[in-house]
Amino acid sequence: MALAKVVTRDWARRRTAKRERLEAVRSFTSGTSGRVLDAGRTGDALQALLRPGDRVALEGDNQKQADFLAEALADCDPDVVHDLHMLISSISLREHLDVFERGVAHRLDFSYAGPQSVRMAQLLADGKVEVGAIHTYVELYARMFVDLTPDVALLCAEQADREGNLYTGPDTEDTPTIAEATAFHDGVVLVQVNELVDEVTRVDIPGDWVDLVVRSPRPFALEPLFTRDPRQIGPVEVLMAMLALRGIYERHGVTTLNHGIGFDTAAIELILPTYGEELGLRGKICKHWTLNPHPTLIPAIESGWVESVHCFGGEPGTERYVAARPDVFFTGRDGSLRSNRVLCQLAGQYAVDMFIGSSLQIDACANSSTVTESRLTGFGGAPNMGHDPHGRRHASPAWLSLLTGEASAPRGRKLVVQITQTFRSGGVPAFVESLDAVQVGKDAGMPIPPIMIYGDDVSHVVTEEGVAYLYKAAGLAERREAVAAIAGATPVGRDIDERRVQELRRDGLVALPEDLKVDVRKADRSLLAARSIEDLVAWSGGLYDPPARFRTW
Amino acid sequence: MALAKVVTRDWARRRTAKRERLEAVRSFTSGTSGRVLDAGRTGDALQALLRPGDRVALEGDNQKQADFLAEALADCDPDVVHDLHMLISSISLREHLDVFERGVAHRLDFSYAGPQSVRMAQLLADGKVEVGAIHTYVELYARMFVDLTPDVALLCAEQADREGNLYTGPDTEDTPTIAEATAFHDGVVLVQVNELVDEVTRVDIPGDWVDLVVRSPRPFALEPLFTRDPRQIGPVEVLMAMLALRGIYERHGVTTLNHGIGFDTAAIELILPTYGEELGLRGKICKHWTLNPHPTLIPAIESGWVESVHCFGGEPGTERYVAARPDVFFTGRDGSLRSNRVLCQLAGQYAVDMFIGSSLQIDACANSSTVTESRLTGFGGAPNMGHDPHGRRHASPAWLSLLTGEASAPRGRKLVVQITQTFRSGGVPAFVESLDAVQVGKDAGMPIPPIMIYGDDVSHVVTEEGVAYLYKAAGLAERREAVAAIAGATPVGRDIDERRVQELRRDGLVALPEDLKVDVRKADRSLLAARSIEDLVAWSGGLYDPPARFRTW
């Protein structure tokens, strides 16, 4: 037998390294389990734990931030800790980039860099940061189980006990996934917590997966990203919401769905109890949701539209409301929300029939992007929701209503809907010949343009002009015409003549308001079940506690 | 404000029901936490817990089976427990269908029914079982967070303590996912365990998520599905493995990958340390894997080819070997494997560049299926690995080497490879004009044919004749020609003339062995690094303990 090249090697190098790392921080810990790190020694501990070149996952989620650990990392001595390879899903804090500017880290794999994207571009230009790749959220987590396993994970949670058991509270987000990837490949898991307690409220992550906990001097930062003030919803959003309800939700019988962030989809949520009720659609559409606890969904929940909501993360201010609606939300033994981004993404990809999200820019082929300036923001989670999952095999009426595929292999298709006004504020056209993202990608040296949702995955586009049924287009040329027909006075919309629009309407590729029997005169704010944050609080029976910045009354 | 239709309702019906259910079984439990169920009262407990119409998840995984609970359920009195809606990912045991035959359950959502598919067809015909839908594994779990949340979950694990903390051992598979969907929506989680202990070896699932544990009189059943005896690998499999290595792995620089089950891919694993070494490919390909611990991967691991392996589940006999290779496998604090189907599926979908699997039947358009008789087996996990995930955004050299997409939106593509001999044993052609699955789907009243992998997702097909590079085909006609060129003397292969094959070779759509510089004369069993299970044991240094049925020496 060909036993020629057996390699003699140490097969437990990661385990040995972990033992040595933990040994090096032992003097900074207390408690019988040795898991509790003295907060005042956090910087020393990081310098003892980390080795040059380490792969470090820093929690950096969409909403919550391990900010205390991020600061301590940024303060490390670059002579001691350098050339780290950071895995940060959302670059949200100044400190996330300070670690590169100071030379503590050099390589970066990430998913989203919204608030810090300008500075990031500068650091890239200066050679201070080398980007591995830009991912969607779940891709980055997926790689943690393949070729980007963390050596150290810096996470955050609400509470820990002295054995390291963690309570994440409603904002579980990505903590269990990163902890699993790290703990089960002999990486070190260090968690900042808001409270150290004798017994955690509920165990979200077992202490067996956690090596060190440290009490942060202040609660971790958390952004209310999913709160939309109904005051900012105008008649055009209401009109688009009516068109979407009649032309898509009702027509395809959409019972399971995901809404993106934005005022356009918030308007849809807010007209369910009014316009939706008038159309007799309650119980027929919008029953099962995958999305964060949007405050604008409260009136629909209270009106009996919503059977279940599974969440990627939480939303500040909705804690008491969610806890009081356990039949609808996924909650734990303690009563509070359990969220989980990876499982909600799984649900959003394989169990729901529709994704609808706002777009900032759409090209003539229906490719879309939220990049609209000369900066690279990354992808976040939209591409995973906004594509047709070819791995799906079970059928549902909505999915089957978009029959697609070659003759020998017919199949259904996910509804991927883009919604936007033809012009954004300031008169900037939303429909353009070429996406800004194409140039941004070129400038950043990306191998392919950073497109958020591909045109061939988009099934419908909604504007105030009407609905384009792109899934019915026979080819790219027809898809371009259907987009043009609802693109209004934008450069893309000016290309099509009236006669062709009539043909597209006749063939069912385009529907205008009158085709959908939507009375444009009714499209005003009076259709909104709540017209202010105050109204949302009233709908919730006082259970919704909006963050201070939204308390405008 | 339009507060017209607020529904007054009880928002905690599931929670109340759960409390009542647990109250009803209290007299069958012991222990201070009340979580330990007396094994002798399991049947009584199920009759007290369950209500007609309940949605019940029964663990039925790909490998492990909650068989004690399945038996107890099948023995329930159908006058008391009836019309259950079962969620079983893999219908593997007689009892899984007994529950329908006896009228305990009526509705079924499932993923795979291999061993029981004939009886299942009969029960369907008799109206004893009503199928909701047939899913892939992850789709079924995804729906547990959307519209198929379990009321009761019947699961299995290695150990529990009296607080309900669970140790799943290496065979974690789907237990955490089903437990999370159930526990966090006020369902009841009941787990059969092999051992009740004072302290579990490691906590895989926190006791907070578990309501009841019962010690099964015997360990749960577990199938060694991923063990392939190298004795059954012949020269044709070796030839195909050589073609795949040169024509795909080397050419595209595949470093991250997933192998399906089968002798074809086992042959590839076994020639890495011989033929692969000769080609100088170690360190250049096949570094990061997502797959169960295949015994046939041991020689490649021992020869230093493999940097990491993340697993969907375990494999009986590999426990000691895996525990001794923690740098490669994901293991826990206790040293044993941690698997997780959902996370490995995530990794296989979004983090690896290639899937390669054996097919039993491929049509002229490259659609493929493992259904080859008149029965409905379902999908399992292959479709999720075997498609091009449009939600992926990060680039890698292998992915970019298959540049695809419209001109305005170029992108890379996953390598989805199908491998098969042109004829199966008994002279049955693997290439056919129409898949048996099409007729099977019709007979079963399925809305669309149950195709395992769609032809437009397949990038390459390998046979003993050569490799077809389908991703280069300009359209369906050219794809059909490329398939025909390597389909040998099958009905599909006879359609193409020699001149056209030459053109396809010239244009790079097809490569024959000589094009790939594969010396056909070298293709024999001497290239296999292990030629028997005994050899695999030797490669493992005695750490691999093959199950009795494989001990043939």
UniProtKB/TrEMBL annotation, chains A, B:
Pfam families: Mal_decarbox_Al (PF16957). PANTHER family: ACETATE COA-TRANSFERASE YDIF, MALONATE DECARBOXYLASE ALPHA SUBUNIT. NCBIfam families: mdcA. This is Malonate decarboxylase subunit alpha.
